[in-house]
Amino acid sequence: MTCLSEVLKFNEKFVTNNQFEAFQTSKFPNKKIVILTCMDTRLLELLPKAMGLKNGDAKIVKNAGAVISHPFGSVMRSILVAVYALQADEVCVIGHHECGMTGMKAEAILASAEQRGISTEQIRNLKYAGIDLESWLTGFECVEDSVENSVDMIRNHPLLPKDVLVSGMVIHPSTGKLDVVVNGYSQDRAETVSS
């Protein structure tokens, strides 16, 4: 049985048994926060639990590394939609230790692409067309610096209102421990949030 078949078989029972009722909420985040985090599988349930979030509390945007690579790309657009259309008034970037983007090099991704059938000619054509594959496919060296960079890009975006708080944290994927990198309430790096 394929993964899709398993999903659809489960889904049929889920809907028939009204299991969706436990998750019903509105499209507006109860805690008025949008979170940018990594797509790492270890964070799927851990991150919301470690933050005390339940269904309906937050808008969560995920990508590889919790990185904003372009100020006018889809990640930043999602954050702005959450702010302007969905009533979020706070943004939190959450990277994690042991991230696959740490130390990732474009050469390794491109070599893997060739092994999976992407020709050297296709890669060369993209480069000739002005696509900077090296920058686009390269990760980061330090997760804290990456989080700080994404926070800075969000905070200084020309379309983000100045009253929207932007914080940054790093979570440990084994324990769920959160460490503050940027405290949006004080706008200072690595200042601990007081309760």
UniProtKB/TrEMBL annotation:
User: What general EC class does the enzyme of this chain belong to?
Assistant: lyase
Return the cofactor note field: Binds 1 zinc ion per subunit.
Question: Its Enzyme Commission number?
Answer: 4.2.1.1
Which reactions does this protein catalyse? Answer: hydrogencarbonate + H(+) = CO2 + H2O
Task: List positions binding Zn(2+).
Answer: 38, 40, 96, 99
- GO MF term set: carbonate dehydratase activity; zinc ion binding
Q: Name the coenzymes or cofactors required.
A: Zn(2+)
Question: Is the Oxidoreductase keyword given for this protein?
Answer: no
Question: At the top level of its lineage, which domain of life is listed?
Answer: Bacteria
Key words, A-Z: Lyase, Metal-binding, Zinc
Say which family it is in. Belongs to the beta-class carbonic anhydrase family.
Supply the name of the protein.
carbonic anhydrase
